[in-house]
Amino acid sequence: MVLKNEQIILGIDPGTNIMGYGLIEARGNHISLLNMGVLKLSGLTDPASKLKKIFHRTLSIIDEHHPDSLAIEALFYGKNIQSMLKLGRAQGVILAAALSRDIPVFEYSPRRIKQSITGRGGASKEQVAGMLERLLKIKEPPEYLDATDGLAVAVCHFFQRDATAPTGKKDGNWKSFLKNNPGRISR
């Protein structure tokens, strides 16, 4: 994966009740927060209406910020196959929105995202949010962790760029990032 030196990355955590999203700007090895938020869908009962709203909100984010790539959290099978099917539909309309604007799409497993942010694939949502708050100097945490989940997907995609850089290094987790970038993070 070759990424240009300056880019905007949109990360999305798909959901049928709440969709989280985050946008970062990457300039060389530095990232900054552009925007993050959620799309609340709990007021809608018709599944088709939810999908339509997800599609249009994703398009409006894309049209407003012009991201160079979209990173999305991959689906995983939990206990309820119906929930997974609903999430698959939500993910599908997000992908359709990105592809309709010729934006490349990258998919990351929840475990990979957590590991790239915290160094632990089993980290909690709160741990991921706390690490992102420090990394991006977020002064006021969002009301919903879905927003930081979406942001985490974008940051994970940025770290994967570092993991596949010409140095040949394949270790793209948080510990590796700190080791390879001394002085970039204030503690």
Describe this structure in words.
- The chain has one domain (6-180): 2-Layer Sandwich (Nucleotidyltransferase, domain 5), CATH 3.30.420.
- The chain has helices at residues 47-65, 81-100, 110-118, 125-135, 145-163, 174-180, and strands at 6-13, 18-27, 30-40, 69-73, 105-108.
- Helix 1 packs parallel to helix 2, helix 3 (110-118) crosses helix 5 and helix 4 crosses helix 5.
- A 5-stranded mixed β-sheet has the order 3-2-1-4-5.
- The model is unreliable at 164-173 (pLDDT under 50).
- Strand 4 (69-73), helix 2 (81-100) and strand 5 (105-108) form a beta-alpha-beta unit.
- With 187 residues, it is of the alpha/beta class.
TL;DR?
The protein contains 6 helices and 5 strands. It has helices spanning 47-65, 81-100, 110-118, 125-135, 145-163, 174-180; strands spanning 6-13, 18-27, 30-40, 69-73, 105-108.
What's the CATH superfamily, by name? Ribonuclease H-like superfamily/Ribonuclease H
Strand element count: 5
Order of helices and strands: EEEHEHEHHHH
Radius of gyration: 16 Å
What is the highest CATH level, the class?
Alpha Beta
Distance between the termini: 30 Å
CATH architecture: 2-Layer Sandwich
Content of β-strand? 15-25%
Strand order of the largest sheet: 3-2-1-4-5
Count, helices:
6
User: What are the low-pLDDT stretches, counting only 5+ consecutive residues below 50?
Assistant: 164-173
Q: Main β-sheet: number of strands, strand sense, barrel status?
A: 5 strands, mixed
Write down the overall mean pLDDT.
Answer: 86
Oligomer, anyone? single chain
User: Looking at CATH, which topology would you report?
Assistant: Nucleotidyltransferase, domain 5
- Number of self-contained structural domains: 1
- Report the principal-axis shape: globular
The helix content, as a percent range, equals 40-55%
Secondary structure class reads alpha/beta
